[in-house]
Write a structure and sequence with these properties.
Elements lengths: L3 E6 L4 H11 L2 E5 L7 H10 L4 E6 L22 E4 L2 E8 H6 L6 H5 L5 E4 L10 E6 L5 H11 L3 E5 L4 H11 L4 E6 L2 E3 L17 E7 L6 E2 L5 E4 H5 L16 E11 L5 H17 L7 H13 L7 H17 L4 H4 L5 H9 L1
Parallel strand pairs: 1-2, 1-3, 4-6, 7-8, 7-9, 11-14
Antiparallel strand pairs: 3-5, 4-5, 9-13, 10-14, 11-12, 11-13
């Protein structure tokens, strides 16, 4: 017989509690400010429990139970609180022991180390794992970068040779089978320290998340070329015609100052020029919402002056200077600025 299960939620986490309830079933939701298990709440739980033991789930992130079925019960009538993997997110309480001394089982007593715990070594839950979509077009090292990524993360999917940044990302959203998904650009060399295991805050699961990348020409580190985590539904239903795609899909953008990759765009003259041109059009025209103007001017100056001694760095600088001029000249002409997403137009401009 499955034991009684309670889950705590607050105004931030109710939708997460609902997801867990859908998957596990037969869970009673109980509201608690800041998810605190107080004496009053644990008394309420024990009083309504008809079995000898009951479970409590406390979480501010979505979790999955791939094999645990909540049927476990101790062999003896003991008053230990059972937890798994030295983690108090899921707990098993003795009903009679709680009713006899409810104050002794609240969160404050646990924090003070006053509760006797029995720790099971197994881990009974996991976090959702988001899909990874690798986007490639004409990048020189796309195949090698994809194979390395696929080897480390077999769940990686690939979308290749689709014209148009918006179209490619919307097709990527169709490939994704999870509520959020990562996008990796083909010129991204993912660092060994990056794990694709981020779990968004419950109020931020509709945000676009962007990680920093390292620029091998000028050593800047910010969101340009970094790994991105998109909300799948928002991207599927997006109807805009953006200049900068990433900052407009959702109403909210969160930049995570962790370097996810090296953006190896400087593989040939055109790729280096194109990258410098596109980024500096955005910087010079200041089309990205809520940007820090001082920081933007600094990045623009670095793009236009640093890295000539690096591989194809002179072409990156050439593109940056050209892009800065184009962005300033057309800052109030969005139809002109959108040309930076037309790769055929970019190639013609470079050739000219």
């Amino acid at each position: 017989m499955k034991q009684t299960i309670f889950i705590l939620y607050d105004f931030q986490t109710e939708h997460i509690a609902d997801k867990i309830c859908e998957r596990v079933g037969e869970i009673e939701k109980i509201y608690s400010d800041n998810l605190e298990l107080t004496t009053r709440i644990i008394t309420q739980m024990a009083s309504s429990c008809i079995g000898q033991y009951f479970y409590v789930i406390k979480t501010d992130k979505e979790i999955l139970f791939p094999s645990f079925d909540f049927y476990y019960r101790p062999e003896e009538n003991e008053d230990y609180v059972h937890i798994w993997d030295n983690d108090s997110t899921v707990r098993l309480y003795n009903t009679d022991a709680v009713l006899e001394n409810p104050t002794e089982f609240c969160d404050k007593e646990l924090e003070n180390g006053n509760i006797r715990l029995r720790i099971h070594t197994e881990k009974i839950y996991t976090y959702p794992v988001f899909d990874i979509v690798f986007l490639s077009y004409d990048e020189e090292y796309a195949e090698a970068n994809y194979e390395k990524l696929k080897e480390r993360f077999p769940r990686t999917k690939r979308l290749h040779n689709e014209k148009g940044i918006l179209r490619a990302h919307k097709l990527a959203a169709r490939l994704a089978e999870t509520e959020m998904f990562y996008v990796v650009d083909a010129d991204a060399q993912i660092l060994s320290t990056f794990k694709f295991d981020f779990q968004p805050h419950p109020l931020e699961d509709t945000f676009v998340h962007v990680w920093h990348s390292h620029n091998p020409v000028n050593d800047l580190e910010y969101g340009y070329g970094g790994v991105k985590l998109f909300p799948t539904k928002a991207l599927k239903t997006y109807l805009g015609s953006p200049i900068d795609f990433t900052t407009t899909v959702s109403k909210s953008l969160k930049v995570i100052p962790e370097v996810s990759n090296i953006t190896k765009f400087n593989t040939d003259p055109f790729s280096a020029w194109r990258s410098g041109f596109r980024e500096c059009v955005k910087l010079a025209s200041k089309i990205i919402p809520n940007q820090d103007n001082t920081e933007t001017e600094h990045r623009l100056a670095v793009w236009c002056t640093k890295g000539e001694d690096r591989e194809f760095g002179d072409f990156a600088i050439m593109g940056a200077i050209d892009g800065a001029g184009f962005g300033k000249a057309h800052k109030d002409q969005p139809e002109k600025l959108r040309l930076i997403n037309d790769f055929e137009w970019l190639e013609k401009r470079f050739s000219a």
